[in-house]
Amino acid sequence: MNQLIRIRSLNLSSEKGKVKESVPEVSLGDNGIKGDAHAGPWHRQVSLLAAESIEKYEKDTGTRVPDGGFGENITTEGFTLHHARPLDRFVCGDVVLELTQVGKKCHGGKCAIYKQSGECIMPDEGVFCRVLGQGRLKVGEQLEYVPYTFRIKVITLSDRAYRGFYPDRSGPGIIHEMEQWFGEKRLKFSAGHAILPDDPEALDRELGKAVKEQMDLVFTTGSTGLGSRDMAPEVAMKHMAREIPGIMELIRVKHGMVNPNAALSRSVAGQSGKTLIFVLPGSTRAIREYMQEIRHSLWHMILMVHDIDSH
Predict the structure, then answer these.
(1) pTM: predicted TM-score of the whole model, two decimal places
(2) Which residues of the chain have a pLDDT value below 50?
């Protein structure tokens, strides 16, 4: 069940860095809250801060801070917002806010809010959103917190595994790696797994379906070598709007320095819209090596394809 969060106050200011004034209602357009200085075509259009964070600050410092005192557009109560993650959503009627960033750089003495309060908790506990659905918000209404669930498709390519001659270990190996990674990131995900023969038409159909369904991550394993039936890279690249060559080049060079045969892999990576596609070898050892490197930059890749500037 999704969490319900009460809107305790709505706050606006015409200039950045100034303490906001509370208003009973706001109107949200595609660039943010109309009339607010932070509205614009970027990823931090609307700021939110939990009353729980403000109350903790007041208790720790003995300082009273009014709603909007830290520059937040929306003061909420009922949920510690900084535990949410990018791509999670807050929904109220037609209004949909997508979380794009948790915390921000503090401007210190240059900020009027910092000068007034002596400290700012927005850099650690404020969250920032962009508007996906326009409409109006009123004080006292509830936002529904909807955590984002990443959808993964894993496709094993192997004539023998498909016919049951031996169990598939590479596909489950990828899922295991993703379970660890999503657990570390505190993100929700669901995974589907298919075993196919080394058949280009079957792979083409499965990849086409995954892209059409806008899966977040698609992994194939197997059929990346030099054999007559190895065809995964050629088929997968037909579904990529653009290739991401660097990550596979890095893996081939890094592991090829130890094992020259690793440089013969024809693995590729690319994207189709917001879907990231990774074509991996079929051995369990290669899965561990490739997934280790992919995991290092995967979160940054996800933010990039969702047009979130995390630099």
Answers:
(1) 0.91
(2) none
